[in-house]
User: Fold this.
Amino acid sequence: MESNSFKIYSSIIDLPETWNTVAIGNAFLQTPYLKVLEDSAPTNMECFYIGIFEDTELIGVALAQYLDLNKLESFGERDKCVKKAIRNFVFKKFASHTLFLGNNMITGQNGYAFSKPINFKCISKLLIESSEAIIDYFKKKKITIHIVSFKDFYQECSVELKKYEFSNLYEFNVQPNMVFELQSNWKTNDDYVAAFSKKYRDQYKRAHKKCEDIEVRELGYDEILLHEERLYELYHYVAQNAPFNTFFLAKNHFSTFKKQLQEQLRLCGYFLQGKLVGFHTLLLNGDVLETYFLGYDNHIQKEKMLYLNMLYNMTKFGIENQFQKIIFGRTAIEIKSSIGAQPVMMSGFLYHTNKYINKYISRIFRNLEPELEWQQRHPFK
Assistant:
């Protein structure tokens, strides 16, 4: 442990040459994606890149994100209720400056990577110390960090982290990550559809019939630039109507992403009579297919079952390109289970830097975000 240290960087230009070698197993920690964050991060976000060293050798990389919630236009407009108003007031007053160790823009354990085995005692200590160093950085700028959150750990990792430095932190579970483990015997989309029970095969046919007059095609960089304003409009509608937001993407995010990651990012547009009415994005992350942001015209979505067709199309891409699994993320978890995704519980940890507020953080957190009730679907024979 004595030989391990960390260094925090605020620009990818300064990262060690071996950064991508250490991060090779996760596209969300490699410099092309970090460059996307640097060039088109949400306006209320500042990113930090953490290098972890054994003596002088880089053996680990991590990502941290600071969010200023005072700069948000909205926390989300879906819930029209007193609880929403109370929640928004609390966040503005007591949680407007938030530090995430991990990536708050995506779902999954994408916060750190190591090139060699390292024990959880060391990991927990390094993550805590890194967060404290970033808190001190902001303190010198006269900014008080309110909440520190360590984001998205699979259960086996959270159990280990709680044995060490995370033992006094509040552990929380929100909506599960919906993960679709694709069957190795599915070689074509027809194999997938054949595995459905009659009820869900009928649902598949009905959804596809609704979308017969929708043209679906992948957009290259030039087309993304051409449709950038419309893409953002469609994305923003979905984001604005989510239950809760801590950021909104920059308007140039999708073109920047495509320029940096090229064929590793796939953006598919949905056109009705030549007009863009929806889109979805996919990131090719080794043998894992990661769903990214999407958007749609709500009137078309209802009429054409557009969102469900997007889920089917992303699954088709995963099967035909022989990915092992698809990460569908949180939100809309019941409909995602209807196409075959399974819930995977993930944990986060957080604390409030005000000791008095932190004493009641579990009660506050539970009251602000009620437990989700949903019915898991079982679509296969």
Observations:
- DSSP finds 15 helices and 15 strands in the chain.
- The radius of gyration is 21 Å.
- The CA atoms of residues 237 and 298 lie 8 Å apart.
